[in-house]
Records
---
Amino acid sequence: MNKVYLDYNATARMRPEVIDLVTKVMHEVGNASSVHDFGRHARKYVEDAREQVANLCNVTPDQVTFTSGATESINTILSGYRDKRILISAIEHPAVIAAAGNNAEKIPVTSDGIVDMDAYKRMLDNETPPALVCVMLVNSETGVIQPIAEMAKLAHEKGSLFFTDAVQAAGRMDISLDTLSVDFMALSAHKFAGPQGVGAIIRGSGLDFPKFMLGGGQEKNYRAGTHNTAGIAGMGIAAEWALNHIADYKKIQNLRDTMEQKLRQISNQIKIYGEQAPRVGNTTNVGFPGIPAQTQMMALDLDGVCVSSGSACSSGSFKASHVLLAMGASEEDAKSALRISLGWATTQSDINRFLESWEKIVKRATQ
Ligand code: PLP
């Protein structure tokens, strides 16, 4: 039986045009920094991709720096601020929490999973304004969209810079740098149907960021290391596809919304985290109190249905999610939550398979 993949927030299924281009580039040779014909040919893939990623973020190509993924992008930006005052939200990805360092101050969130704006304003209103505020645009576990433009404007009024991790937003909503009013943004290609191991930093016009990867002079000295030409080309075409198909997200949202209605019909004891907040259309974080996520995931897996508990990076460890705890969930409730994340290849039949399997679990547990 075909397996059902509902873990797009961990990594999205690659688009066929991405696979085709990456394969084509891998059949070729050339270092994008070499000046001979092969090198120039490789460089063309990199520069085309830079333009495609720039279009996705509504910036100019010189504002795009390629990296090995969002983790590197995040470490790069935050490396310049660790000895200064940094504000992050309590629900950031572990990459941000670790790279910001122990002194970073955490902005709390409401029970809906949105940054507590009153607390944020109080934290900004300090004798020493933060050098940097770093808050994700879309939470990876709940899909909740944070009020980034409003937060960035408030930060700017205090003279602070604003960095957003837009990894789970790209391809799912508008991520124009200007609309968001942010100074820096981190992206990872594999979350929007591109290849794994390639990402970008988008920076505001005229802004600089710290040099983290030292070595050769690639990426105009911003990021040393040979270009991952095939990966970058794949990121470019994925960005173009994402930009051209953003309206299709409505279909994914319809699938998600009907799935949530059916979950409620199966059991009225479920809790959908962040349900009342603005959310991207592909993510559901659902708790069924009393059945550990581990048990649910294993039973689903036996039926060929793959979902996640909490964030992918912590799946396997089955710790209570720091995001759900920050939203006020109890340890036990947080440990019973599943993340179901849909994407471009998800079908109604996938959702039906998930619902059938989940209904069996609930029936067994409540008999
Ligand atoms: N930020 C968010 C919100 C994520 O969901 C992830 C990946 O799960 C990352 C950062 C890190 O991305 P990568 O592992 O591709 O470097």
---
Amino acid sequence: MPESIQSIDAILVDIPTIRPHQLSMTTMAVQTMVIVRIKDSSGLEGLGEATTIGGLAYGPESPESVKLTIDTYLAPLLLGQPAGNINTLKVRLNTSTRGNNLAKSAIETALLDLQGKRLNRSVSDLLGGAVHQHIPVLWTLASGDTAKDIDEAQSLIAAKRHCDFKLKIGSRALMDDVRHVAAIKAAVGDSASVRVDVNQAWDEATAARGMAELQAAGIDMVEQPTPMKDLAALVRLSEKFHLPILADEAVADATDMYRLACAGFAGAVALKIAKAGGPIQALKVANVASAAGVGLYGGTLLEGTIGSVAALHAWSTLDKIHWGTEMFGPLLMKDDIVVKRLNFHNNGVELPTGPGLGIEIDEDKLAYYRRK
Ligand code: MUC
Ligand code: MG
């Protein structure tokens, strides 16, 4: 008898951030994770996670809507079904429900974790095998204050925890942002890569001026300068500047990647399991990008340990991750709900070992931080 899916729980968990995290569209003081627990008829459990940034500030799914989608629509389609064939289960979900990739990413992750535990293989083994065990991770400076950001960067460089930095800009006047970025780049020096993420805040003309200034300041990459749906602006800017563009909000799934590449985009793409609908789906984006000569970057929606590890298993299977990753989400939160936290060292992180994701929930912490 194949094991069947017995229960699916979606739990809202709120953990304060270590400092305010300021982006162009919101400032975060807390991160909310939707933790998904899928149990099969043998008693094994798979873990998944969906997060986003600032409620509805980043995209059309909020943590609360992810929970509602799972409880009301996705779980009833999965309960009682054989647990062992993830592709069949995903076809079943996608035949009856559209979009909602964050919710589907949490479900796909939990099914992979469950499958790995049943077969005694890691999630990266299920995805074809890890090429990397230690994966580079940058840090985002987003305190909103130039001097604080410089202190933060210098202590992280000294501790060898991170050597590359992403700065969140776009909420201030252009030249204020440029001065902020240039001061940080001058303070950290040439050995650190400094990139910026504008989170769609600029129109094309502002972006053109901003990119010229940032290029002169020695910045290595500009992430999503213009609105996500304006693919033509992203293409024109990528033709105009040597400074590479990282497409983030513009590319969720493999079809988006294909359209942007066909439109003539050159640069790189932020892969995110949340945007794509799970680790398997995010690797499909990577395949299309690679075929089009677009560079790869392991992106985050500031997931906690479960979501970050799911992404790390996927990124570990990629031959080249040209721009590294930003899987630092667990470090932005004051606490964690797992027994063993990730091991960040030497400007990167160790891929956990063991069956499935290789993670165990700390039940006391989960009980403490779950939304009452
Ligand atoms: C984004 O837009 O890239 C990733 C790092 C960070 O600080 O925010 C995110 C989301
Ligand atoms: Mg981004």
